[in-house]
Design goal:
The chain is an all-alpha fold. The chain folds into two domains: 77 residues; 228 residues, no CATH class. Helices cover 80% and strands 0% of the residues. The protein contains twelve helices and no strands. The longest helix has 38 residues.
Length: 323
Amino acid sequence: MREALFIKKNKDRWLKIQQEPSQDPDEMAADFTQLVNDLAYAKTFYPSGKVTGFINSQASKIYLDIYKNRKEESNRLVTFWKYDLPLTIRKHYKVMLFSLALFLLFASIGFFLAKKDESLLVSMMPAGYDIETTKENIREGNPFEVYEHGNVFLSWLHLMIHNIRVSFIMFVSGIFCGIPSMFMAAKNAVMLGGFDQLFASRGFGVDFWLVVFVHGTLEITALILASGAGLILGKSFLFPGTIKRMDAFKQGAKDGVKIMIGLMPVFALAAFFEGFITRLYNNISWFTTFIFGLSVVFVAWYFIIYPIRLGKKFKAQLNEEEV
């Protein structure tokens, strides 16, 4: 059978599965079985055809729905952290890589601008931040003294609410083509780069990472992912692909919300570290360094390595179903 005839014969059924997906488990299983059969045929006779990729994407989506909705002994919350969030991040890994690259680019810009002209730090830092006080602390040999003040509980609560608020603004504003999300990420990155230069130029470059990133590892990672969630929202509307624009937008919003929900505990933990742990760097430096290292390992594993491995596992299972 020629490819055009194959498409004509099955097009209506494929579009119905795509645009009106069934919620009934038995019907989903039947649709999946049919798509797998179609995919096996397409791979045999049209291995490089676009129709093969289309059928594969539809089969993958249904398989993922079945996989996520099957009855398991674990509760829904465990399923979310174990499968839903990592697979969503893996699904949008290109957007997340772009968000990371954008942040690193503007952090570098902030660093080198501050190196060239330190007076620019005033415009980089948030309103109310006293740079002169930080410089005075550095001269007195206690560069991170700012973290030692305030009630630990109130500091944790304030920082958590502030970061969650900023991240949700970053996400929701992504509806405007993702531009506000990128702007806010770039602004935070420039601030971080300038802040780093302030300490590095005075011989505290390594200390900056070992102290500030006790909480900053989780906080910055979450901000990058929140920016990515905003870009997903904008991208889903601008580039809907083969499905209706509104359907693509709904899916993008759903994935973005899923990421944002997953980031709430990360922001809470980052604020806890900043309020309770970072201030201990002078007295228990080995402990703060341990927390920093543990945070790096967690971020690398859960947000990078694990989603990749889970995605490969899912793909292998799908291939087994095709056979």
